[in-house]
């Protein structure tokens, strides 16, 4: 732009944010090809999606990995997979974001080793490991170890990158998943900042970082946020984040350089807010949500990745991802947004909105700190219960019509959509042979290693884990020896143990004002009387590695409000564990929740297990992101009902569960 630009404009147009697409599926080779295609289309950074076995520290041939390999991301089991994933992509010149948490140290060790093999200087490598383990206990479910051990791994990684990879963001504090789990803007800001404080306190107290370097640590902490469709409020939320982060960095950690206190964040707009009904409406939702994190120059995202219009239907195709990338490019290059200073400076409306969120979020943060910090708030169940309650209130507003979702609870009349006319062809299909190939490949990898070197590396890892030593050197030795993802995590499981987070159901209730619930409650009681039992018993199960438990928890809360006795043991259960619980608890109905796309593998395994246990008569229902053709297959296999995101009325779903029980018992 000309330096004599008209008054009110910037002398030079701002550079656009980093544009990413969250991508990865099937195999390292297939994902590499997808990365190359996206980069050729003008994407300026990579955002790697890993499959659930990788995220939870299992190899493709583990029992819990069945049906999950390559489905929601790329499987990376060892150094060979990481080499294939980035083959021909110069990591020294790339900005790579990796959505990985519990095994973040492991994946960064693999990434750094491949970069070094390419001849890159680690000090030049730029990117981010998500590495926010706290939100995994609250919303996403890919935790492995207890909170204290997990924070130790995070602190070790922060200390390592400070010295060896100073351009790397070692942790990406995530409010994104908190919003999906029900957080209000106030809770989202307050809880995320409580997590950031826990991470920084752990780094400060670990003894590995000189006190004079805390400003450098704070400067590399980034955030990953969610942007909903209420984009004016979302803009205020981002400005509030910046105000409080500056305050915390200055007052709690003594950071004097304003540049180091700058709030740095990337964003993916709200995937779970996309709808299966009238999915064409998702296009405008995505654009409006993008505005919430780009309109305000003083609070603009550093990196943006957008979901695709069909993510409520299944895995997006390359065309769908291209469409979302083009949305960013049109805003950045065709519009005049980047030519102006902050559009909200001096706005009384925005100032009032920001002040309200700052006040509320500061109170939430102080409450968590008074409880002993975010780890104590996780372990007590406070945070999870607060999110379950907030999500229940959000669902109540949707069901009552107080909140409108176009095409779902209002304006539901519609024409057939040409976008979905192709049926299953409207989403990316993962070849079932992918899993078998991954299983064979990891076994071949193990067979070709130096067994003694592997054993020695794992022994060092276990020994170091029992001390306060930084675990990155031992992890790098494991990488070089050919250790697998499952072996690395397994060695640490032996030292740290595993963890099962509170479900938060105790504090959840969401039926207030639902006039139809009384009638359903009477049906539940009448059915129990006819069966001669005290109460109907519902087992809610999460088979496989899918940790997105919001839907399961909301069904559990509403069913309990309707009079069911609900047995919910949390996430990540094998088919055998679910069958055993169903038999032992003598339940009347089993409800399975699967959002990862593994339903055609994990649901039949439960059905087969029930038949083998002599309970083939027990009705099973399934909920999740399930294409119509897959729903037909599940019903043919013996599933009584299939619910998808279009079934938003929870009380109606619970009423249908009563009908299923009655039909199963010939009532």
Automatic annotation (TrEMBL):
<dbReference type="Pfam" id="PF01642">
    <property type="entry name" value="MM_CoA_mutase"/>
</dbReference>
<dbReference type="InterPro" id="IPR006159">
    <property type="entry name" value="Acid_CoA_mut_C"/>
</dbReference>
<dbReference type="InterPro" id="IPR036724">
    <property type="entry name" value="Cobalamin-bd_sf"/>
</dbReference>
<keyword id="KW-0846">Cobalamin</keyword>
<comment type="similarity">
    <text>Belongs to the methylmalonyl-CoA mutase family.</text>
</comment>
<dbReference type="GO" id="GO:0004494">
    <property type="term" value="F:methylmalonyl-CoA mutase activity"/>
</dbReference>
<feature type="domain" description="B12-binding">
    <location>
        <begin position="535"/>
        <end position="664"/>
    </location>
</feature>
<dbReference type="InterPro" id="IPR016176">
    <property type="entry name" value="Cbl-dep_enz_cat"/>
</dbReference>
<dbReference type="GO" id="GO:0046872">
    <property type="term" value="F:metal ion binding"/>
</dbReference>
<dbReference type="GO" id="GO:0031419">
    <property type="term" value="F:cobalamin binding"/>
</dbReference>
<dbReference type="Pfam" id="PF02310">
    <property type="entry name" value="B12-binding"/>
</dbReference>
<keyword id="KW-0479">Metal-binding</keyword>
<keyword id="KW-0170">Cobalt</keyword>
<dbReference type="InterPro" id="IPR006099">
    <property type="entry name" value="MeMalonylCoA_mutase_a/b_cat"/>
</dbReference>
<comment type="subunit">
    <text>Heterodimer of an alpha and a beta chain.</text>
</comment>
<dbReference type="InterPro" id="IPR006158">
    <property type="entry name" value="Cobalamin-bd"/>
</dbReference>
<keyword id="KW-0413">Isomerase</keyword>
<protein>
    <submittedName>
        <fullName>Protein meaA</fullName>
    </submittedName>
</protein>
<dbReference type="InterPro" id="IPR006098">
    <property type="entry name" value="MMCoA_mutase_a_cat"/>
</dbReference>
